[in-house]
Request: fold
Amino acid sequence: MKSRLAIRMQVLSFVAFAAAVPSFTQERAIEFPDVDGYRTFSVDLHTHSVFSDGMVWPIIRMQEAERDGLTLIAVTEHLEYQPWQKDIPHPDRNRSYVVASEYTEESESDVIVVNGAEITRSMPPGHVNAVFIQDANALLVKSSGADYMTRLRPSTSEEQAASEREARKAIEVANEQNAFVFWNHPNWPSQRPDGVAKLTDMHRDLIAEGLLHGIEVANGDFYSAESLQIALDNDLAILGVSDVHYLIDWDYLPNDGGHRTATLVFAEERSTESIKEALHANRTVAWFGNWLIGREDALMPLLEASLQLTKVERSPGDKLIDIRLSNMSDAAFDLRVTSGHRFNGPPSTMRVEPHSDLDLAISGETRTSFEIAFEVLNAITAPETHPTLRLPVEVPPR
Reply:
C-alpha cells in the first residue's frame, strides 16, 4: 500500500487540477427541500470505475459526486466482469473502494462513500447490487472450474443452474454482511429483449426470504413502469441510479441543465446508518430526468415541501385573488388544476420552473377559505398515475 505522503501528493494533484477548472458546484448540485421529520439526501448507489468496466479512476467518481452535491455514493464494481484486468490486475475486489476512501480522508470530502459490489450473472437473477458491505471478496463465489464469462452467458442448463446457485450464495453472503441488496435494471434489453421487467421464481424466493430489498425503476436514461409496479407489489425500495461508466458530464450534461439519475432518501440525519435505515424503510424517491417517482407516502411530503404558497392577497380594486406559487426544488413542476379554479392569465395547465415563483390571479372565487388542487404531471406514484397536491388558501382581510 502507498505511504500516506504518496497518497496525499496524489490527492493534492487531483485537487489542484479540479481547482484549475471553473466550478459549477452551485449550478449543478442536486437540491431538494427537507420534508416533515426528515432531511432529504441525494445518493447514487450504482457506479463504476476502471476497476471493473468503467472508464475513469475512482477519485474522479468522488469529485463528480462532490460537484453534484451528493450525500452518499456507493462503489459497485462488477465482481465477475473485469474487462481491464490485464491492464489493471487487482485480486482485491475492495480496491476501488479503498482508493475512493483514501481520497475522502485526505481531501476531507463531505461525500460519504460506501463499499458495494455488482453480482453479475445471467437472468435469473440478472445483475444485483449489494451496498454497505464489509468485504467484496467474500461475494466472489465460484463453485466450479468454469470461467466467469460462462456464468454471464451460460449455454447449457447445467451452467445456468450453477450460475443461479453461485448468485444466490453471493446474495446470502451480502445479507450476512448486513447489506442493502437490490435488483439492477430489470428491463435491460440485453437480458429482457422486450424491455419488460418480469419477476422470476428466483426473485420471488429472494423477496420472500428477505434477501432482496430494492429495485431500480430508473437506471441511466431508462425508466421501467413494470419495475415500479414490482416495487409496489413486493414492498421493495424504489431506486434511481446513474450506473455511470463514462463521465457524468458526458452522460448527463449537468452544466447544461441535466443531472445524474439518483435517489432522494429521507433520513433522520446525515450518516451511513441513518441513510441505510431509510432505504430499508422505503423512504425513497427516484429523481430521473424531470420525473419524481415514488410511493405516495414518500413522494407527497416532498411535493408539499417543494411547492408552497408564499403570497395570498385580495387584489386592490377588483375581486381577483393574487397568489404566488414558489418552487423550492430542482424539479420543473408541470401542474394541471383539478379544483375547478380559473386564472386571469395562465390556462389550467402550467409549469413552475426550478427555484422560482409563479404569480397567479384566481378569478371568480368569492370565498376567503378554500383549497386549490393540482395534478402533478411530472410525479409518478404508480404506472400512469400522478398524485394530486392540495394547497389550502386563506385570504387575509384587507
Q: What stands out?
A: The first helix runs from residue 4 to 20. The CA atoms of residues 129 and 363 lie 53 Å apart. The first strand starts at residue 39 and ends at 44. DSSP finds eleven helices and 20 strands in the chain.
